[in-house]
Specification:
Layout: E1 28-29, H1 31-48, E2 55-56, E3 66-67, E4 71-75, E5 78-84, E6 98-105, E7 112-116, E8 119-120, E9 122-123, H2 139-156, E10 162-168, H3 171-176, E11 185-186, E12 188-189, E13 197-198, H4 204-219, E14 224-228, H5 231-241, E15 248-250, H6 255-264, E16 269-275, H7 276-283, H8 298-307, H9 312-319, H10 324-333, H11 338-354, E17 360-366, E18 372-376
Parallel strand pairs: 7-10, 8-12, 14-15, 14-16, 16-17
Antiparallel strand pairs: 1-13, 2-3, 4-5, 5-6, 6-10, 9-11, 17-18
Helix pairs in contact: 1-2, 4-6, 7-11, 8-9, 8-11, 9-10
C-alpha cells in the first residue's frame, strides 16, 4: 500500500544505532516511524504526566532515532502526541504531514487495540495485506509500533492494555494524491514503513504500490492488466484494450518491478503500454526507464531499423538521430516499421524477465499525443 511520491538523518532528529549508506541526499522517516514515536510519547505521558520530548524509538534495523513533538495534550485520561514527518530529500507527498497518536487506557487484559482515525485510509477491496474494513496501517509498522509500546510498558511497569488511534492532519486530501483510491484505500493515506527509514529516491513506495495494484486486481478476478508509463498510456490502454481502471498499473519507469512481480504472481495477460522512447530502452534490455538512469541507444535503434528493412543510409540517419522520435519519424517517412520492431524487441525482453511464467505479453508503443506507433503480440 503506497503513498507514492513518499532515513535516517543525523542527530538533529535524534540519536541512532547502525549506519545508513550516505548518498549525499538527506534521508527521512516513514509515516510508520512517526506514528510509533507519537504513540510511545502519548503512552508514557498517560502514566507519568510528562511527555518525553524528544521521544526515542527502536526501528527494525536497530536505528534508534528521537523525534521532536510538534503538539501534545493530556486531559481526562486521554493523551495525544503529534510528530511532523520529515521525508528528507525524497520527493514524498506526505512530507510535512502531522501524524497524531491519541491514546487511552483499556480494560485490563484487553491488550493493544489499533484504530485508524481521521486522515488514515480504510481498506475497501481484497488483495491487500490488511483485511477489508481495517485501517490502512501496514503489517510491519503495526509490529514495531506494538514492540515499542511493549518496551515502554515494561519500563513503566504496566501492562499494554491500550487503545491507540492514529490520525493524519489533512490525510484525506493527501490520500487523493496517491494510488490509494485506485487500489481501494479510501479516506486517507497509508501508514507505511518496512524499515522506518525513507531512502531518498529509492522509489520503494512506488514499487510497493505497483505490487499492491497487482494484488488487488488479481483478487478482483481481473486476468488482463496493463503496465503504463503515464496518464496518456493509461488512456490508450483503457480505450484500445477495453480495460477498467483497476487493471491499469501506473508503473512509471519501473517496468522491471511489474515484470518481476507478475512473474511470481501471474495473470493471464499483461500489456505494456508506453512512450516509444521509454519502451526502446526496454527493447535494449533496460528495466529502469528513467531518463537520469538509462538513455535511448541510437545504435540499437539502428540495428532494429535494419532488421525492419532500413537501407544503410537510413540506418546511418537513425544512428545519428538526436532523439528516439526523430529516428521513428525518419523510419516512418521511409516506410520502415521501427515502432513495431521496438515493440517486438521489448516483448522479447519482457518474456526473458518473466522466465517462463504463464503470462501472455503484448507491447504497445505510443507517441506523445497517444497515437499508436508500434505494437507486438496483439491478437
Amino acid at each position: 500500500m503506497g503513498n507514492i511520491v513518499q532515513p535516517n538523518h543525523d542527530a538533529t532528529q535524534g540519536g541512532r544505532r547502525g549506519q545508513l549508506k550516505s548518498s549525499g541526499l538527506r534521508p527521512g522517516w516513514t509515516t510508520g516511524a512517526c506514528a510509533t514515536a507519537a504513540a510511545v510519547a502519548a503512552w508514557q505521558a498517560l502514566h507519568t504526566g510528562e511527555f518525553p520530548d524528544p521521544v526515542q524509538i527502536t526501528l527494525p534495523a536497530g536505528h534508534q532515532p528521537a523525534f521532536a513533538l510538534t503538539q501534545e495534550s493530556l486531559a481526562d485520561g486521554v493523551a495525544m502526541a503529534a510528530v511532523q514527518k520529515d521525508a528528507g530529500d525524497d520527493p514524498d507527498v506526505t512530507h510535512g504531514a502531522v501524524i497524531r497518536a491519541t491514546v487511552r487506557r483499556a480494560l485490563p487484559g484487553s491488550g493493544l487495540t489499533l484504530v485508524g482515525g481521521a486522515g488514515v485510509g480504510r481498506v475497501t477491496l481484497p488483495g491487500l495485506p490488511i483485511p477489508v474494513g481495517e485501517p490502512a496501517i501496514n503489517p510491519v509498522p503495526r509490529t514495531y509500533l506494538r514492540d515499542n509500546l511493549t518496551r515502554s510498558s515494561e519500563r513503566l511497569g504496566v501492562s499494554l492494555d491500550a487503545v491507540v488511534e492514529i490520525s493524519v492532519d489533512g490525510g484525506e486530501e493527501l490520500g487523493r494524491r496517491t494510488w490509494n483510491p485506485r487500489i481501494g484505500i479510501m479516506g486517507g493515506i497509508s501508514i507505511l514503513g518496512t524499515t522506518g527509514v525513507v531512502v531518498p529516491y529509492s522509489c520503494s513506495a512506488w514499487i510497493d504500490s505497483i505490487r499492491r495494484g497487482v494484488d488487488v486486481a488479481r483478487a478482483a478476478g481481473l486476468t488482463h492488466l496493463a503496465g503504463c508509463t503515464g496518464s496518456t498510456s493509461e488512456r490508450v490502454a483503457a480505450e484500445l484494450l477495453g480495460l477498467p481502471e483497476l487493471a491499469l498499473l501506473d508503473m512509471g519507469d519501473f517496468v522491471g518491478a511489474v515484470l518481476k512481480y507478475v512473474a511470481r504472481h501471474p495473470v493471464e495477460r499483461l500489456s505494456l503500454v508506453g512512450g516509444f522512447a521509454k519502451l526502446s530502452k526496454l527493447a535494449a534490455g533496460h528495466l529502469d526507464l528513467h531518463s537520469h538512469r538509462t538513455a535511448v541507444d541510437p545504435a540499437h535503434l539502428a540495428e532494429l531499423a535494419v532488421g525492419a528493412g532500413a537501407s544503410p543510409e537510413l540506418a546511418e540517419a537513425v544512428r545519428g538521430s538526436n532523439t528516439a522520435m526523430a529516428a521513428l519519424t525518419a523510419c516512418h517517412d521511409d516506410g520502415v516499421p521501427l515502432g513495431d520492431a521496438v515493440a517486438a524487441a521489448a516483448r522479447v525482453e519482457a518474456l526473458r524477465v518473466l522466465k517462463g511464467a504463464p503470462v501472455r505479453i503484448d507491447v504497445v508503443c505510443i507517441d506523445r499525443a497517444g497515437a499508436v506507433v508500434g505494437s507486438a503480440g496483439l491478437s
